[in-house]
């Protein structure tokens, strides 16, 4: 996104090139990513809260506050149903305009996978994975996500044509097309980021995390990948096994990977999300600092409840 934004600014400053097409791409991509991220980030925070049990439910965990601040993104600046339509319609425009563009010009943007749509529409095309570890191959994963996105966009184009461009009738496919493209872009960005990390323990750790992310996305939308038998039932089981294989490996680095974001204790303001990990003393201290706990018996008891209990009522 930053690269696309900077490219658009450079076009404006130079006075050359087609700013309109770059702006359209920037708008569509940001719409699709915002729709996907708003849902998954808020769901992710809630998942974290539940995994923390009772501690996650406490106010001192700050997870409730973080969720409340984040969940609004599902509404402001466009709701999911509005944003995916804008994103999907852009993908359709690109698909229709492909015969009039040269491949070199289209290879530089986020929709370059559509230039290979004919290849991905081949009904005999199959995923090449033979075992669970093969789903750690980034090239294989990206090809699977490109094939999925291309096929859904083409299906959407056919449905739009059949319904005389009735967006409401095609809303389900629009959502699927937007989601497929958004997840392709996210995985591609992750893979590109991993490739910039120098060889070593850090690269191995983030590579495993990237592989887990890709496998998790596949499992979440396994129906899309199973359509046309691009993934077989056996491969669907293999990708689940890949997740189970990676989880204990990544768990060893989970704290370090989390700390890599460099969130400060001030930002998190949480008794259970502390840099020093000393959560139980923090929980006791926060409870002791609570005004209601400053006395053994709350002042309200002496003032209101005790007289009522001892009265003749």
Automatic annotation (TrEMBL):
**Entry keyword set:** FAD, Fatty acid metabolism, Flavoprotein, Lipid metabolism, Oxidoreductase, Peroxisome
Q: Acyl-CoA oxidase C-alpha1 domain location, by residue? A: 5-92
Question: One GO molecular function term?
Answer: fatty acid binding
The Gene Ontology CC terms held by the record are: peroxisome
Q: Which residues form a coiled coil?
A: none
GO BP annotations of the record are: fatty acid beta-oxidation using acyl-CoA oxidase; lipid homeostasis
Tell me where it mainly resides: other
Which cofactors? FAD
Q: Where in or outside the cell is it found?
A: Peroxisome
The record's section on Pfam families has:
ACOX (PF01756), ACOX_C_alpha1 (PF22924)
Domain Acyl-CoA oxidase C-terminal, by residue range, is 137-310
Domain of life per record: Eukaryota
Q: Which family does it belong to?
A: Belongs to the acyl-CoA oxidase family.
Protein name (Swiss-Prot/TrEMBL)? Uncharacterized protein
């Amino acid at each position: 996104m930053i690269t696309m934004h900077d490219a658009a600014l450079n076009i404006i400053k130079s006075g050359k090139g087609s700013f309109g097409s770059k702006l359209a791409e920037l708008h569509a991509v940001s719409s699709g990513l915002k729709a996907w991220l708003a849902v998954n980030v808020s769901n992710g925070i809630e998942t974290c809260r539940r995994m923390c049990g009772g501690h996650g439910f406490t106010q001192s965990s700050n997870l409730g506050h973080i969720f409340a601040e984040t969940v609004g993104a599902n509404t402001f600046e466009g709701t999911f149903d509005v944003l995916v339509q804008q994103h999907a319609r852009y993908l359709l425009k690109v698909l229709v305009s492909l015969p009039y563009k040269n491949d070199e010009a289209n290879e530089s943007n986020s929709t370059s996978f559509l230039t290979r749509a004919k290849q991905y529409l081949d009904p005999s095309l199959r995923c090449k994975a033979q075992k669970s570890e093969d789903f750690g191959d980034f090239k294989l994963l990206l090809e699977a996500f490109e094939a999925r996105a291309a096929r859904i966009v083409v299906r959407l184009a056919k449905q739009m044509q059949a319904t005389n461009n009735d967006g409401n009738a095609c809303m389900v496919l629009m959502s699927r097309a937007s989601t497929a493209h958004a997840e392709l872009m996210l995985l591609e960005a992750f893979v590109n980021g991993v490739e910039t990390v120098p060889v070593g323990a850090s690269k191995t750790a983030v590579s495993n995390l990237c592989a887990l992310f890709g496998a998790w996305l596949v499992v979440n939308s396994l129906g899309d990948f199973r359509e046309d038998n691009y993934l077989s039932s056996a491969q669907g089981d293999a990708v689940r096994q890949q997740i189970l294989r990676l989880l204990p490996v990544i768990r060893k680095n989970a704290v370090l990977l989390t700390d890599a974001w460099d969130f400060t204790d001030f930002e998190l303001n949480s008794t259970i999300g502390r840099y020093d990990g000393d959560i139980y003393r923090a929980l006791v201290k926060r409870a002791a600092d609570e005004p209601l706990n400053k006395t053994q018996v709350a002042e309200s008891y002496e003032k209101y409840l005790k007289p009522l209990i001892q009265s003749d009522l």
